[in-house]
Amino acid sequence: MDFHNILINWYLQNKRDLPWRKTADPYLIWLSEIMLQQTRVAQGMPYFFAFTKEFPTVFDLANASEEQVLKLWQGLGYYSRARNLHKTAQYVANELNGVFPENYKSLLKLKGVGEYTAAAIASFSYNEAVPVVDGNVFRVLSRYFDIESDIALPATKKEFAELASELMPKDNPALFNQAIMEFGALQCVPKSPNCMVCDFNGSCAALQKKKVADLPVKLKKTKVTNRFFNYFVLEDVLGNTLIQKRTAKGIWHNLYEFPLLETDDIVGFEVISKAVQNSVFSSYTIIGIEECAENTVIHKLSHQHLHIQFWKVKISEKIENGVSTSELKTFPFPIVIYNFIEKQEINC
């Protein structure tokens, strides 16, 4: 079939100059693939450079503290990726003498490495003939072959993997995998692709049937939960504040935040004032409470929308274990809190 020849020819003429494409080092490829899960290339690139500068080898990453890793990851989101990254680096460094597994099945055993990431490392580092199947691949193949299978179903992933394997030239799987992902990222994009300049416009089934906008099919909808966070930004006589680590499982595990009151809805001053008086802060002399911003910040995660309000609580005493505003930025925070600190709204 001409599919892979046309695809690879397009790739060689249009591919982006990306740093992880210039190496077969499994450490660097693993690092880039973990970062690019649910992250755009433009957003992930600075983090890749920052990590490779700070942790040039898997041993450097393994020897870092989790807090260092989370701080450097700050802003990429899905922080479980960073925690798994750190644990896997420790495992590879300490249990495997710094040598990554050399095949797809063994790579799957690493924490945080799923089928897609294992396939990417296996093909890019070791040239193993195993197909990568991500959103780009779903889109390209579903449109070209007019496949209406629901990509939210596990059976569909297997269907597409088998198809990609049939199309893949076994003598150069890495090039094919890079090409089909790049084609989905640059040409066969989710919305309004320019099919008139597409190399496949003479053979694409979806284009011929005017179904490009309808494919791929994804029927399962993500249920979104709304949560309402009220952060108490304490300020003592020295200008210091109080932070805490989120140790419970769930979002932002092991990141830092201000003392939190979660409510069932957006609340006003009266509720916050009463909550402060009935909280551990009641041992302090409260001299003022005010909201730090006019509008509630809405921070959207994959399954949750967080409605966040920041409340300045001034006290007349000194906070035990207080943190100065200059020290705050050294801690790993969720990006929405870090942005609040960065804008110096803490001094509202």
TrEMBL record:
It comes from Flavobacterium cutihirudinis. It comes from the Bacteria. One of its GO terms (biological process) is base-excision repair. This is Adenine DNA glycosylase. Coiled coil: none annotated. InterPro entries: A/G_AdeGlyc_MutY (IPR005760), DNA_glycosylase (IPR011257), HhH-GPD_domain (IPR003265), HhH_base_excis_C (IPR023170), HhH_motif (IPR000445), MIG/MutY (IPR044298), MutY_C (IPR029119), NUDIX_hydrolase-like_dom_sf (IPR015797). Gene3D superfamilies: Helix-hairpin-Helix base-excision DNA repair enzymes (C-terminal) (1.10.1670.10), Hypothetical protein, domain 2 (1.10.340.30), Nucleoside Triphosphate Pyrophosphohydrolase (3.90.79.10). Belongs to the Nth/MutY family. One of its GO terms (molecular function) is 4 iron, 4 sulfur cluster binding. Residues 35-186 form the HhH-GPD domain. Adenine glycosylase active on G-A mispairs. MutY also corrects error-prone DNA synthesis past GO lesions which are due to the oxidatively damaged form of guanine: 7,8-dihydro-8-oxoguanine (8-oxo-dGTP). NCBIfam families: mutY. SMART domains: ENDO3c. It catalyses: Hydrolyzes free adenine bases from 7,8-dihydro-8-oxoguanine:adenine mismatched double-stranded DNA, leaving an apurinic site.
